[in-house]
Specification:
Elements (H helix, E strand, L loop, with lengths): L1 H30 L2 H8 L1 H9 L2 H23 L2 H22 L7 H18 L1
Helix pairs in contact: 1-4, 1-5, 2-3, 5-6
Length: 126
Protein backbone atom coordinates (compact mmCIF):
# COMPACT_ATOMS: atom_id res chain seq x y z
CA UNK A 1 0.00 0.00 0.00
CA UNK A 2 2.88 2.35 0.71
CA UNK A 3 3.97 1.92 -2.89
CA UNK A 4 0.70 3.45 -4.16
CA UNK A 5 1.02 6.24 -1.61
CA UNK A 6 4.53 7.03 -2.84
CA UNK A 7 3.35 7.31 -6.45
CA UNK A 8 0.47 9.54 -5.35
CA UNK A 9 3.01 11.80 -3.63
CA UNK A 10 5.15 11.80 -6.79
CA UNK A 11 2.09 12.79 -8.83
CA UNK A 12 1.41 15.63 -6.38
CA UNK A 13 5.03 16.78 -6.66
CA UNK A 14 4.86 16.79 -10.46
CA UNK A 15 1.53 18.60 -10.62
CA UNK A 16 2.45 21.24 -8.06
CA UNK A 17 5.96 21.77 -9.40
CA UNK A 18 4.81 22.09 -13.01
CA UNK A 19 2.02 24.47 -11.99
CA UNK A 20 4.55 26.53 -10.04
CA UNK A 21 6.99 26.61 -12.96
CA UNK A 22 4.28 27.77 -15.38
CA UNK A 23 3.00 30.46 -13.01
CA UNK A 24 6.50 31.74 -12.21
CA UNK A 25 7.40 31.83 -15.89
CA UNK A 26 4.23 33.72 -16.71
CA UNK A 27 4.88 36.16 -13.83
CA UNK A 28 8.41 36.91 -14.94
CA UNK A 29 7.29 37.45 -18.53
CA UNK A 30 4.71 39.93 -17.20
CA UNK A 31 7.35 41.71 -15.10
CA UNK A 32 9.59 42.05 -18.14
CA UNK A 33 13.32 42.68 -18.37
CA UNK A 34 14.46 42.76 -14.75
CA UNK A 35 17.82 44.35 -15.63
CA UNK A 36 16.14 47.20 -17.47
CA UNK A 37 13.59 47.64 -14.71
CA UNK A 38 16.39 47.80 -12.13
CA UNK A 39 18.28 50.39 -14.16
CA UNK A 40 15.17 52.57 -14.47
CA UNK A 41 13.69 52.20 -10.99
CA UNK A 42 16.15 50.43 -8.72
CA UNK A 43 16.13 47.10 -6.94
CA UNK A 44 13.11 47.95 -4.78
CA UNK A 45 11.06 48.58 -7.91
CA UNK A 46 11.99 45.12 -9.19
CA UNK A 47 11.12 43.47 -5.87
CA UNK A 48 7.84 45.39 -5.65
CA UNK A 49 6.82 44.50 -9.20
CA UNK A 50 7.59 40.82 -8.66
CA UNK A 51 5.94 40.53 -5.24
CA UNK A 52 2.80 42.31 -6.42
CA UNK A 53 2.29 39.87 -9.30
CA UNK A 54 -0.46 37.34 -8.44
CA UNK A 55 1.07 34.69 -10.72
CA UNK A 56 4.34 34.95 -8.78
CA UNK A 57 2.59 34.51 -5.43
CA UNK A 58 0.53 31.55 -6.69
CA UNK A 59 3.67 30.04 -8.24
CA UNK A 60 5.52 30.24 -4.93
CA UNK A 61 2.53 28.65 -3.20
CA UNK A 62 2.51 25.81 -5.75
CA UNK A 63 6.26 25.26 -5.35
CA UNK A 64 5.79 25.15 -1.57
CA UNK A 65 3.14 22.48 -2.02
CA UNK A 66 5.56 20.54 -4.26
CA UNK A 67 8.23 20.70 -1.55
CA UNK A 68 5.90 19.40 1.14
CA UNK A 69 4.69 16.67 -1.22
CA UNK A 70 8.34 15.69 -1.65
CA UNK A 71 8.73 15.41 2.12
CA UNK A 72 5.63 13.21 2.33
CA UNK A 73 6.85 11.07 -0.58
CA UNK A 74 10.21 10.59 1.10
CA UNK A 75 8.46 9.32 4.22
CA UNK A 76 6.83 6.59 2.12
CA UNK A 77 9.60 5.57 -0.29
CA UNK A 78 13.34 5.74 -0.83
CA UNK A 79 14.95 8.88 -2.17
CA UNK A 80 16.38 6.73 -4.98
CA UNK A 81 12.82 6.29 -6.27
CA UNK A 82 11.06 9.52 -5.32
CA UNK A 83 13.81 11.93 -6.43
CA UNK A 84 14.46 10.62 -9.93
CA UNK A 85 10.81 9.83 -10.66
CA UNK A 86 9.61 13.27 -9.56
CA UNK A 87 12.38 15.06 -11.44
CA UNK A 88 11.93 13.04 -14.63
CA UNK A 89 8.15 13.31 -14.71
CA UNK A 90 8.36 17.03 -13.93
CA UNK A 91 10.64 17.43 -16.96
CA UNK A 92 8.04 15.72 -19.15
CA UNK A 93 5.16 17.70 -17.64
CA UNK A 94 7.07 20.98 -18.06
CA UNK A 95 7.57 20.29 -21.75
CA UNK A 96 3.83 19.68 -22.17
CA UNK A 97 2.88 22.69 -20.06
CA UNK A 98 5.30 24.97 -21.91
CA UNK A 99 3.67 23.99 -25.19
CA UNK A 100 0.05 24.14 -23.99
CA UNK A 101 -0.05 26.99 -21.47
CA UNK A 102 2.89 29.21 -22.38
CA UNK A 103 2.70 28.60 -26.15
CA UNK A 104 6.44 28.02 -26.27
CA UNK A 105 8.09 26.25 -29.16
CA UNK A 106 9.20 22.82 -27.95
CA UNK A 107 11.57 21.35 -30.52
CA UNK A 108 11.92 17.72 -31.57
CA UNK A 109 15.06 17.21 -29.50
CA UNK A 110 13.22 18.21 -26.32
CA UNK A 111 10.29 15.88 -27.12
CA UNK A 112 12.71 12.99 -27.71
CA UNK A 113 14.44 13.76 -24.42
CA UNK A 114 11.04 13.79 -22.66
CA UNK A 115 10.18 10.39 -24.14
CA UNK A 116 13.52 8.93 -23.07
CA UNK A 117 13.02 10.32 -19.57
CA UNK A 118 9.53 8.83 -19.42
CA UNK A 119 11.01 5.49 -20.48
CA UNK A 120 13.51 5.71 -17.64
CA UNK A 121 10.69 6.31 -15.16
CA UNK A 122 8.84 3.28 -16.55
CA UNK A 123 11.96 1.17 -15.94
CA UNK A 124 12.26 2.58 -12.43
CA UNK A 125 8.62 1.76 -11.68
CA UNK A 126 8.93 -1.85 -12.85
Amino acid sequence: MKHAHAWAAIAAIVLASTTGDVLLSRAMKQVGDVGELRRRGGALTVVGRILSNPNFLLGVLAMTLAFYSLLVGLSWADVSVVGPAAAALTFVANALAAKIFLHERVDRRRWIAALLVAGGVALLAA
